[in-house]
Amino acid sequence: MSWAGVEMPQMLQLYLAHDRCGWLDPSGVGNWHEDEDFDGRLAQFLEAAAQAWPRRALRGRPVKVWTSGGLIRPFLLGPVAGLNGSTEICSFAQSQVSDATGWIQPCEVRLEGDVTKGVALATAMPAAEHERVEAAVKRAKLRLLSLRPWWAAVLDQALAVRPELELLAVEDTESLVLLATQGGNWSMAETFAPRPSADEAIRVVQRMAAGASVQPERSAWWRWDAEMPNVGNALWPAARPSPFEGRS
């Protein structure tokens, strides 16, 4: 599909954080909005996307929404015996959100795995913000295909490159997310938001890597790079690996 001779991305991608919103235009260039409050930016950047994309191509177009680690946080659950059915599992997960993430407001919780059989990775997003995003996308007459944390896609990308990884640090615009495994099982899922300064981030990651007994060669640090162009509908904003030690 092309527009005025320019190859168009098949998928509209949006990025949301507390301090900015972004969208990918048909030519693969990222556009950013940092003015207004969260709701103002949502309306502003969806309107701008609607103007940039051909209306016929935009209406009903599936959209992937990526969020910062400050909006969707990971945490670990389980193993917990004696839970029967999805309702009890959901109730248990909801009861753990406050202690695990520091959020006291109601949250949307999703599980990746069975907490009755082992440690599962879970994610939480404040329900009010979840609803605001869904409503804004609906008003723009888009079809919400996914609403996921950007760090989860970076995790997939990092493991595709280095399947032996045991510790991954993902740095985005406003957060630092640490994920670790031990013996093939999840052992750490931590979010630091707001994002620590560069020097403090190094100390935090090195301290937690040492505590988890993870060797540097099995560790990786990936940072967001909004300047990298979108190629073949790859992850946007792009992520690039950085040196794990001695970062500038």
Provide the descriptors you would attach to this structure in a database record.
248 residues, alpha+beta, five-stranded mixed sheet, 30% helix, globular
Q: How are the strands of the biggest sheet laid out side by side?
A: 5-4-3-6-10
Whole-number mean pLDDT: 84
Terminus-to-terminus distance: 41 Å
Question: Structural class of the helices, strands and pairings?
Answer: alpha+beta
**Count of DSSP helices?**
6
Oligomer class: single chain
**Biggest β-sheet: count, sense, barrel?**
5 strands, mixed
Number of strand elements: 15
Radius of gyration: 19 Å
Helices and strands, with pairings:
Blueprint: E1 2-3, E2 6-7, E3 12-16, E4 21-24, E5 30-33, H1 38-52, H2 55-58, E6 62-67, E7 73-77, H3 85-101, E8 107-112, E9 120-126, H4 127-139, E10 143-149, H5 150-161, E11 167-171, E12 176-182, E13 185-192, H6 198-211, E14 219-225, E15 238-242
Parallel strand pairs: 3-6, 6-10, 11-14
Antiparallel strand pairs: 1-2, 3-4, 4-5, 7-9, 8-9, 11-12, 12-13, 14-15
Helix pairs in contact: 1-4
Describe the structure.
The protein is built from 6 helices and 15 strands. It is of the alpha+beta class and 248 residues long. The radius of gyration is 19 Å and the shape is globular.
